[in-house]
Amino acid sequence: MKDDFEPTIIGFLCRWCSYAGADLAGTSRLQYPPSMLPIRVMCSSRVDPVFIITAFLRGADAVLVAGCHPGDCHYIEGNYYTRRRFACLRKIFETLGMESDRIRLSWISASEGPRFAQVVTDYTDKIKKLGPNPAKKEIFL
Amino acid sequence: MPMEEKIGVYVCECGPNIADKVDIDKVVETISSLPSVNVVERHKLLCSEDGKKFLKESIQKNELTRIVVAACSPKQHEVTFMRVCESAGINPYFFQLTNIREQCAWIIDDKEEATERTIRYIRAAIRRVLYHKALEKKEIEANPDVLVIGGGIAGISASLLLASGDRKVYLIEKTKVVGGKVREFAKLFPRMEPCSDIISQKIKEVENNKNIEVHTDSEVSEVLGFLGNFVAKVNTSENKAIEQPSEQAIKEKGLENKELELKVGAVVVATGFSMLDLQQLPQYGYGKYDNVYTALEFEKMNAEGKILLKNGKPPKQIAIIHCVGREKVGYCSRVCCMYSLKFANYIKSKLPSVKVSHLYTDLTVPGKTYQKFYEQTKEKDVEFIRAQDIEITESNGQLTINHKGTPNLKPLNTDMVILSSAITPSSDAHKLAEMLNISQGDNGFFVEEHPKLAPVSTSMEGIFITGCAQGPKNISDSIVQAQAVAGKILSSIIPGKKLELEVKTSEISEALCIGCQTCLEVCSYGAIYFDEIKRVCIVNEVLCRGCGNCVGSCPSGAASSKHFTTTQLHQEVVEALR
Ligand SMILES: Cc1cc2nc3c(=O)[nH]c(=O)nc-3n(C[C@H](O)[C@H](O)[C@H](O)COP(=O)(O)OP(=O)(O)OC[C@H]3O[C@@H](n4cnc5c(N)ncnc54)[C@H](O)[C@@H]3O)c2cc1C
Ligand code: SF4
Ligand code: SF4
Ligand code: SF4
Ligand code: FES
């Protein structure tokens, strides 16, 4: 069953860097697994950890948050806050016994089309190995 | 779910770009079957004149209230279609563009898969657009006048270019005279041209320019406001009376010490640099031994005429030590190697027989002219010694420089030592940073908004940095930067034209805010303030850039970003996952 499992990943992409990186991957006609559903935000710092948790409850197998490289955030320091919030969230995941591999934070610049494609490809492979998000079955709202 | 809306969905083929990869018939068919959608249309090239006309007419004919376009990246045509919406009489924020080209058609080979994805994207966009709110364009009047703080070469250059663009400039200088450090220099590297020619001409130009109001012996004590609308208080004790008190000079107190109130649209910080305090590096013997000079002291001595020892005799040997304090400050000051070479040229032209030794760790001679200057200087029988761990001692008026770095070299005996020490932030930098709400880096220099994308702006819109206030640099680079600042100001504030503000700002619900001030701490733009009476935080929409960091940090859900509300994003995610 695991073989034909196609993961669904929600990708929160900051509009200045990572969303533009994803655009470049497209313009360069790079092919990568269609596993990620992009959600455009102004800055990675807009991503409230609650969004990530909701995505899981609604059936995402993984969540990727991508922003500008440290020091390159269009809003000066936004991504440093993202990084901190992400570290907290990871701790929460671990404490609750959830697989913290299902969340990932990556820095992808506007010029890194190939890197964008690579990140999505690698992450998809990884989630394929992990299998479907167990929360889909376990949690009832 | 919001009330009855009439939704139109437009799928663009982008010629063969999308049509070849996505089964558009199937997309149209599937989307048409959704209960909430009124119109679904396809078009070959939606961004063409024909396409825009088609879109506009369709919106009007069907009296639509919400629009979704499935086409290319928002970077390409979001603005294009928002304008079409506007011209069709619907609020441009009742629109959502979903990117089925760069992030779908072009990355997925399998047509069936790409078609499925397209449908999913469109569904998410439809869901999102239902929760959109109308947003109105905001405009404010902008004052085109400019306040320049610091009358060094950077401040002067910015003022002159601004004034030539017919802007009123207030140039505020702390000391009695404008010109800055450069006034003390006899000549300039690398061409060794007399400095007075350049600087005195510039000073004259500034003083004679009717658009520039120079205030010497003056300091700025307060700056409030934002791009286009700053109010600055200036304390001045200058004794030359301003012949014609300008309209702007509203308040004037007393005779000697006056306080001016200036209204300007932009502020330029050109407060220059200081030099590292050499008391912090006792190994060089500065202040302890007679003939150990700082670079600025030597510039002055040379400019005043003769190069002499304290006892009035000419020196036989002079050592110039580079990189003094580089390790301590943790950066290269960029000009010390060059002015050290300049010093060798001063010495050799006045006292050709004096032995000149440079003690350096690394030589910094970048760019298209400096290398040559170094080579020419070297030819004048000037010695270069690689040296580290320098320590200076004195006995009977003779200075001895102990050093490591080149094996088998004996300590160097000399009569005079010049210390080329690190350039540090101006002593006022901290005070100014607090007053203007701009940041200083680890090293104390003012920080640019973005090192590559916005190198002369700061995190405060309308406040710019230039010259050595931004970091150590030579005169040419200071002028380049000053002119960049003037260009930025001339192009961003145009007389008679209102400033358009960011629409997608944040807002805070008074009812939900618990007053924890987390949002205030994370905002990089000082756009949030705490209302002491209501005990809640409030967003200053003029300063807010809409990053959403405050929203991401708010524990109570009180802060929200317009057009990126929690509901909008939540609905988009949920529908994408369905
Ligand atoms: C020894 C030495 C030799 C050099 N020789 C050369 C050379 O030959 N060629 C070359 O290209 N570069 C040379 N440089 C570099 C050059 O000095 C700088 O590039 C230049 O001075 C930078 O100009 P500035 O306007 O940024 O700063 P500054 O020259 O420091 O001017 C800043 C001005 O702002 C004023 N100010 C400070 N604080 C306030 C305040 N709070 N309110 C109001 N006014 C204020 C100061 O009084 C000053 O007038 C040399 C530097 C040194 C140290
Ligand atoms: S709107 Fe975008 S997708 Fe459509 S034709 Fe123009 S460029 Fe192509
Ligand atoms: S973080 Fe939220 S609750 Fe705290 S002060 Fe800001 S808006 Fe109010
Ligand atoms: S959205 Fe960004 S700029 Fe605006 S108030 Fe919040 S943190 Fe500050
Ligand atoms: S704008 Fe890209 S992370 Fe902040």
How would you characterize the overall build of this protein?
The complex is a heterodimer of chains A (141) and B (578). With 141 residues, chain A is an alpha/beta fold. Chain A has a single domain (7-129), classed as 3-Layer(aba) Sandwich (Rossmann fold). In chain A, 42% of the residues lie in helices and 16% in strands. Chain A contains five helices and four strands; from the N terminus they run E-H-E-H-E-H-E-H-H. Chain A has helices at residues 18-27, 49-57, 78-95, 113-130, 135-138; strands spanning 9-14, 36-41, 62-67, 103-107. In chain A, strands 2-1-3-4 form a four-stranded parallel beta sheet, sandwiched between helices. In chain A, helix 1 links the parallel strand 1 and strand 2 (36-41). Chain B has 578 residues and is of the alpha/beta class. Chain B folds into four domains: 7-135, 3-Layer(aba) Sandwich (Rossmann fold), CATH 3.40.50; 146-272 and 426-492, FAD/NAD(P)-binding domain (3-Layer(bba) Sandwich); 276-425, FAD/NAD(P)-binding domain (3-Layer(bba) Sandwich), CATH 3.50.50.60; 502-562, Alpha-Beta Plaits, CATH 3.30.70.20. In chain B, strands 10-7-6-14-25 form a five-stranded parallel beta sheet, covered by helices on one side. Chain B has a five-stranded parallel beta sheet with strand order 16-23-17-18-19. In chain B, helix 6 packs antiparallel against helix 17 and helix 7 (153-164) packs parallel to helix 14 (475-492). The radius of gyration of chain B is 32 Å and the shape is elongated. Chain B starts with 6 loop residues before the first strand and ends with a helix. The relative contact order of chain B is 0.10. FE2/S2 (inorganic) cluster is lined by residues 14, 16-17, 43-45, 67-68, 73-75, 78-79 of chain A.
